[in-house]
Specification:
139 residues, Arc Repressor Mutant, subunit A, globular, WH-like_DNA-bd_sf
Length: 139
């Protein structure tokens, strides 16, 4: 039940992302970089679940558009520190607000108590993802 719902929600987000000129991975990067500067492209890819070789083009595009910054780490010049720029933050916030409006419209169909319970369960699951019997993260 969760996978089809996730796909439907991603499909609902796509027109919002398109309107703002962002791909889904680019939005994921902007969301993650705001939490804290990331020490390397590989660490960022791992944090958002992306392949580190495929994310380079996304980072190049975001940097060319002035939405992120990549600068050498003073402690190790082979490593690039990644951070979001003020323009990237503004774009991310606008996209996030539009997506949240859509989520609120979806959730408004349900009574407040059900909506609150659903969100509480989602937060708990995302904070502590289920584990398969073999001890590996499940999905």
């Amino acid at each position: 039940m969760i996978v089809p719902l996730g796909r439907a929600l991603m499909a609902a987000e796509q027109p919002v992302l398109d309107a703002h000129g962002l791909a889904m991975w680019a939005y994921a990067v902007l969301l993650r970089l705001d939490e804290t500067p990331i020490r390397s492209q590989a660490a960022l890819a791992g944090a958002i679940g992306a392949d580190k070789t495929r994310i380079i083009a996304v980072l190049d595009d975001l940097e060319e558009r002035g939405l992120i910054r990549r600068r050498p780490d003073p402690a190790d010049r082979r490593v690039r520190l990644l951070s979001v720029t003020p323009e990237g933050r503004r774009l991310r916030d606008a996209v996030q607000a539009d997506i949240q409006r859509g989520e609120e419209e979806l959730l408004a169909r349900f009574p407040a108590a059900e909506r609150d319970g659903f969100l509480r369960v989602l937060r708990a699951l995302s904070a502590d993802p289920p584990v398969t019997p073999k001890g590996k993260a499940g999905g």
